[in-house]
Design brief:
Length: 412
């Protein structure tokens, strides 16, 4: 029966069967060393002279005894008694997977992605991503949310702001969904609390982490709220659950990536947008942010709260009516009950309270000159007496990139 490398510490002195990939091999004349990689990690295997070890990335099976060796990676090694190739690579891998750092340019790594993804750092990032998403999902299930699965081929956009990707749908034009917003608000009338983890598509230049034309969006919507504070508090709880899960399940991956997870405060600090802009100007002398916070303004605000409160997170609230979607609940002072969440200088979440009053929604659509094709479903939904509700959308790629301080959008 197969044993995984992560289980070897429980099998010291015993014979085991391992299956995995040739991560690295070295011949010292009288003895050969093989680093075997499986889905759970790596282990050093010691093999006698005369055994042919196929080239790296071949899949192999070994039988041997687990022994302690303080000089071996992880303090363990397997003394191999039997070795069997399963599937031998027919040519050298275009990328040396075993290297910690690659000198190849990004385009080369992307061309050979089917190999470079096997690298320990790349695998670690994908695993952390998976656990973050699962943490998002489990945290919401624990709070009585229902997962939904919304269409990705639609007849119109949900927000009216971002450009749409048109596709040929038989004899007519359809679009790739830019957001599940309409469906989330509809489903509040069904389950009250819903969420989705799925890709969304926006016809933006795919150049930076702030402009992605395809990304995984982590969405939630919840009914019977008192204000946007309920949504922010829910995100606070969910973020804590996401990072707690990664801390519990991904210690090895975090070490490989060389990152430390942020501590999620019991209550993430808040600052209204107007105060955030004043902070940039009056305390830091930064005046180029315009009416919103530009990327440098976001970094300044994040740095300020990290230095003054120790928090990597800060909610920026009360965005102006003109800067938010037509369904954002307006305040009398021209702001909205909305927020962005900044994490280490990058906006990773947008959310807020939605308009649930039908007449208010119609007035806001007229104010914003929203096309009927965009607004029809949400307005019909509001006409069926939906409760006060709100939600958010978190960009998975942005949260991952902020943890790693990543500079490219095409590398996980």
């Amino acid at each position: 029966m197969r044993t995984l490398t992560r289980e070897l510490k429980n099998n010291i002195g015993q014979s085991v069967q391992l299956e995995g990939f040739v991560h690295f091999r070295r011949d010292l004349g009288g003895v050969q060393f093989l680093v075997l990689r499986d889905r759970s990690g790596t282990v050093q295997c010691v093999i006698g002279k005369g055994v042919h070890i196929p080239m790296p990335e071949s899949s192999v099976r070994v039988h041997g005894k687990v022994v302690e060796n303080p000089r071996a990676p992880g303090g363990l090694e397997v003394q191999v008694s039997a070795f069997e190739p399963i599937s031998a690579a027919v040519e050298p891998a275009p990328v040396e997977v075993s290297k910690e750092e690659w000198k190849a340019n990004p385009e080369t790594l992307l061309d050979y992605r089917y190999v470079s993804l096997r690298g320990l750092k790349e695998r670690a990032v994908l695993r952390i991503q998976a656990e973050l998403v699962q943490g998002f999902r489990q945290s919401l299930v624990d709070e009585d949310f229902t997962e939904i699965f919304t269409p990705k081929i639609v007849s119109a956009g949900a927000e009216g702001g971002s450009a749409l990707f048109p596709i040929q749908y038989f004899e007519q034009t359809a679009y790739l969904a830019q957001s599940p917003q309409t469906y989330k608000q509809i489903m509040v009338g069904v389950y009250e609390r819903v969420f989705e983890t799925a890709c969304v598509y926006r016809a933006e230049e795919h150049a930076t982490s702030r402009h992605l034309n395809e990304y995984m969006s982590l969405d939630l919507e919840m009914g019977f709220i008192e204000s946007e504070e309920d949504v922010m508090n829910m995100e606070n709880l969910v973020l804590a659950g996401m990072f707690r899960r990664v801390a519990e399940r991904c210690q090895a991956e975090l070490e490989v990536c060389g990152v430390t997870l942020p501590a999620v405060p019991e209550r993430i600090p808040r600052i209204p947008l107007a105060e955030a802009r004043a902070l940039c100007i009056e305390k830091y002398g930064y005046t180029n942010g315009g009416k919103d916070l530009d990327p440098e303004g976001e970094r300044i605000v994040s740095r300020h709260f990290l230095e003054t409160t120790g928090s990597d997170f800060v909610f920026v609230t009360h965005y102006p009516r003109a800067a938010r979607p037509f369904y954002a609940y307006p305040n009398e002072d021209g702001t909205t009950r909305s927020f962005d969440l900044l994490f280490r200088g990058i906006e990773i979440t947008s959310g807020g309270q939605r308009i649930h009053d039908y007449d208010m929604l119609l007035e806001n659509m007229r104010y914003r000159n929203v096309a009927p094709t965009v607004s029809a479903r949400i307005s019909r939904c509001s006409n069926t007496a939906v409760p006060p509700h709100g939600g958010l959308a978190m960009r998975r790629w942005r949260s991952i990139g902020s943890i790693r301080w990543a500079s490219t959008t095409r590398s996980p």
